[in-house]
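Bit of a strange request maybe. I'm writing a small parser for structure token strings and I need a real example to test against, not something I typed by hand. Could someone generate the tokens for this chain?
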Amino acid sequence: MLLEKIEELKAQVKELKANNEEAIEALRIKYLSKKGEISALFNDFRDVSPDQKREVGQKLNELKNLATNKIAELKEAFKACEKEANKIDITRPASPGEVGTRHPLSLVRKEIIDIFARQGFTIADGPEVEDDQHVFTMLNFAADHPARDMQDTFFVNTDASDVTRNIVLRSHTSSVQTRVMERTQPPIRIICPGRVYRNEAITARAHCFFHQIEGLYIDKGVSFADLKQVLLYFAQELFGPETKIRLRPSYFPFTEPSAEMDVSCMLCGGKGCSFCKNTGWVEILGCGMVDPNVLEACGIDSKVYSGYAFGLGVERITNLKYMVKDLRMFSENDVRFLDEFKASH
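Reply from user aminoacidic:
Good idea to test on real output. This should exercise your parser:
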């Protein structure tokens, strides 16, 4: 009969639960106090026959140890929970905020930089508020070039005199190239990412500020073939290995010869569609060999060194990759628009 009571209490002890100190103490009193149920069984042990005392005694000790350990476990579990609860920052919001995402321009900018970094280009940076010398003069712009006109360039005027009109918001990141060239002797291999400003009406296809990444490589024996290979690698890494490029003659004051580069339309594969206006090609950047006048203006001997330069708009590339039809969406900070790029990184 006593053995049955012991087994019954064992089953009860194994299932003991408590979630506060008062409940744990109540269980200790119920089972382990002098008037507890286990103590009562020890009192009944005196009436057990001699031939059963060994077995019953062992069972009683097992029950007491089980109950003692169980109560100790409940106390430790409660202390651990209490300690963890004290770590909670009660100033935090009741519900977690939504996870943000990188801006699509940042995603594309990083991708472009990574591609050129794999070809040995390093990043160069410069001021956004620049002087005429580095933005225009050293880049072979004529004194009467239209880009100097107020229609294209933001001039920073600190007073009413004309002297301050040579301070501008840079209209291209080529100003970073001139700064690097005037203080560094070749070889030079850099890319210049940054924001630029132009005095244009804000529409779905144009903005008064946008982002460029320009590249420059100057060394002995640099050729147009080197430029073409670098740009082909860039296009195929960015748009896919089947991408083709096309170079069309163009004009820029700071390069000679100059070219516009097209890539085969990524939508139709070059067959022709509404996106590429049925030509099969989409323009993405301008490029060319650095004009000797630019090298000389920056203190580099054009008879010894040659080089190439290229420039592309980050918004333009982002439009091609993600089919964003309105440039204004990039700067409106509409979270519904930005949420579409959460899976892009």
